[in-house]
């Protein structure tokens, strides 16, 4: 099957206004999973849109929000691609920081501003329109494609593992492909072969039954804020090393291939510092990428106690709470780490309550697979530029449900721009990035069709890590 790359490019850009309007319809529909606002309406809207493209689609209920499942099966023996994405979004708060309304797509400076524009509706629709583009040019798809679009990614994909476990036969695939996350800060196309996992938990210290006068009861009552601070200092040293016994057990050493991939990634410390809002950033490229993708974190994401308003209120607070998220790497297990944290707290201050909030396992696919090389070549063609390959995403996605439950290799290809401001006010996706995502999806499907022809006899024998 021949491909006229320039012709595909011209087709996608000639349909720009039509494609944007199709995206805008989905963006206008609220789908805030944390608040259960507009979820079912958005799922139905997405289902109808997929049906209009000729995709057999249905909603599958879970114990939470429904999964939009679709499939186009050309031949049961053909190569099968599973496309994953999510239709839910973060709450738009704080509303006063938005320049334009958060659920009214607005174009400024060749960017689409709207909640969900980059994470993940813009990237999801780009994949669907890439399939439409392929069908418009070739009538038939050369491979089978299945679709899993969930409505709970922004609240930790709580029900996705059980959904995948319960539907292994339905979801069976040779490769899982996800368009999510941000492109490399250099602007180069980026291919990700894994994710860091995550553990979220809360520590709560209690003092008296109510806040007390800091003079009348000073030196008498324990201050729960100090109790938390004392405990936290036993959990992490000043250099960032986690002091919890066994925290670093089971971490797999970085392979030579992964080390080479990290060293190939471009690095401009000044540019990155400006884009993340921290100009004093002072790291070498090798350290930056290693810390960002191949090492675990132990982060305080929120701490609360006493009075923090205007002026001063002289009290001994009755309670103090800290929320912590730890990003985990292969092959750390979130529940193993949580149990070790509980043991640590029991030793150092058993009065402090530990509450589990959620977790996600890390995931990894080998860079040495032929299928990875095939997709890399397709992305190269789509962008006329060799993509960067990063062994792991710095953040977390439920990628392990594919690699560890479905036992399929998984590739993540971010379509959104590095500065998309996902989860923040003024979330956006550049129009060029959206259109390039459509074009990229077309090329990936074409490449997998060609791969299918050459690998039909031995595809199932490939192994991945």
TrEMBL record:
InterPro entries for this protein: Cyt/Met_Dipeptidase, Peptidase_M20, Peptidase_M20_dimer
* Keyword Hydrolase on entry: yes
Key word ATP-binding present in the record?
no
Cite the entry's keywords alphabetically. Hydrolase, Metal-binding, Protease
Q: Which residues form the Peptidase M20 dimerisation domain?
A: 194-350
**What name does this protein carry?**
Acetylornithine deacetylase/succinyl-diaminopimelate desuccinylase-like protein
